[in-house]
Amino acid sequence: MFDPIVAFFQRVFTAIGRGIGLAVAWILWPFVALGAWYRGRSWIIKGPIALILLALVVFYGYFIWQTQAWTNFDPDYVDRYKLAERTVPAGSPVSGPGAATGQSGAAAGANQAAVQPSGADSTTEALAVVQLPAGTVCQTSAIVDVTADLIDLNVNQNAWISSMLAYKLGFFGLDWDDTPWLDNKASFQRGINQAVRRTAVELVDSLGRVRGTSGINNDLQSARGNIQFDEETWYFGLNPFGPKTPTPSFYRAAERDFRKFNVSLGKCEAVFDGRSDNMVEFLDRIANDLGNTSAIIRERSEFHNGGWFDTRADDRFWFSFGQLYGYYGILSAAGADFENVVQQRGLTPIYTETLKQLRSALRIQPLIISNGREDGWIMPTHLATMGFYILRVRSNLVEMRDILAR
Questions:
Q1: Which positions, given as ranges, span the membrane (predicted)?
Q2: Cα gap 76→65, rounded to integer Å
Q3: Closest among 41, 211, 21 to 114, alpha carbons compared
Q4: 321: closest CA among 185, 218, 222, 201?
Q5: How does strand 114-115 pair with strand 93-95?
Q6: What share of the chain is helix, strand, coil (3-state, %, to 5)?
Q7: 52-61 confidence digits (pLDDT tens)
Q8: Using CA atoms, how far apart are residues 191 and 165, in angstroms rounded to an integer?
């Protein structure tokens, strides 16, 4: 009685198997034909072709390895700075004759009299400052330390993916960002770089100078210019045509500039202006930066929710993840650099909660990014989840800014 039914399903599965076999044969046919052609050639032809194929295997093998190996990725990287052990804000004397005054970082910076060097251009040259007593050592900036280390993570401990030749060539001409493969690390690195760029601007414009009485610090100005360089330059380019300095070289120069500034700050030869109004401005800029990312995630989540089939969802997710990864360290460092402001204005509880929210966001590390509908029940919505954490952090930053502005 069941024989006709069994026979029917046998025919169905046989047809499916035959179809799969034909599809595989169609895909493999060019390679089989090329293999047959290759076997019939002499070694004069075989040799160069084998070398070219070997070079391609090594070229793309190295590229794939670099995109998958996230060296020293550590969501708890802030712990190694031991920020709680810092006893004074950035720029304040920590040892030597000047330490006995008990000045805050802002007061110490303000009390270093600015002197305009003869013939110097005040818009580009940092003003000389009168030195504190000989032997005085000042507290370096944790913000600068973290910023320099984030650059080091991006371009020294890992390859900078966005300017690698294989990444620029794409997948048969298709931009890797438009595919589901091999672009997550590049997006993560660009997210970190966004946080670094924003911080570099604030260090130059306000934190690294006494507003109205000193010029721009040359090391910070150089770092800002280098870190703003585009993210995709290789050793050679077409527009303009010719050899170029690749992106990682500029970023390494920015790292060196940041470290030079901190050396000068430790010698009390530079300024870190840790006033409350500077902290207000710093938090406001970061909140605006996160607000922009939130809008991008919202647009992708609302209008392109293709679930696991949205090939750009992973780019948006890992960019925002990298941005939060960077700001987790930078904001943790800011709490140490502005330690006097945080304590005096009663920000410790909300500041601690903000850092906890940032760390919680870094726990979201799905294997495959899905941009499903928010009311869906099959495919998850990782973008909306990340957007939720970004908005939580941003709302806390806005609240802290409002408290400081009162």
A1: 12-37, 49-65
A2: 24
A3: 211
A4: 185
A5: unpaired
A6: 65, 5, 30
A7: 989 999 999 9
A8: 20
- 293 touches 390 (CB < 8 A): yes
Handedness of CA 209, 215, 218, 224 (dihedral sign): positive
Give the SS3 label for residue 365: coil
Instruction: Provide, rounded to the nearest whole percent, the portion of the chain with pLDDT above 70.
Output: 89
Q: What is residue 44's three-state secondary structure?
A: helix
CA dist 187 and 179 (Å) reads 13
Do 192 and 320 touch, CB atoms closer than 8 A?
no
CA dihedral 275, 280, 281, 287 (to 10 degrees): 150
Three-class SS state of 209: coil
Hey, is 138 helix, strand or coil? strand
Question: Which pair of structure tokens corresponds to residue 168?
Answer: 């620029």
Task: Specify the amino acid at residue 309.
Answer: F
277 has pLDDT over 90:
yes
Q: Which residue has the tokens 């030597």?
A: 96
Residue that the structure tokens 């060296």 belong to: 71
Q: Say which amino acid occupies 76.
A: D
- The residue among 302, 296, 303, 331 whose CA lies nearest residue 317 is 296
DSSP structure string for 74-128: -TTGGGGG-GGG--S-TTSEEESGGGGG---HHHHHHTS-EEPPTT--TTTSPPE
- The 10 Å CB-count burial string (b at 16+, else e) for 209-222 is bbeeebbbbbbbbb
Q: How far apart are CA 127 and CA 218, in angstroms?
A: 10
Paired tokens of 88: 């004074």
Neighbours of 293 (CB within 10 A): 20
Q: How far apart are the first and last CA of the chain?
A: 86
Give me the phi and psi of 346, to 5 degrees please.
Answer: 65, 35
**Dihedral sign, CA of 343, 344, 350, 354?**
negative
Instruction: Kindly tell me the sign of the dihedral angle through the C-alpha atoms of 252, 296, 205, 277.
Output: negative
- Quick: pLDDT tens for 47-99: 888 899 899 999 999 999 999 999 999 999 999 999 999 989 999 998 766 66
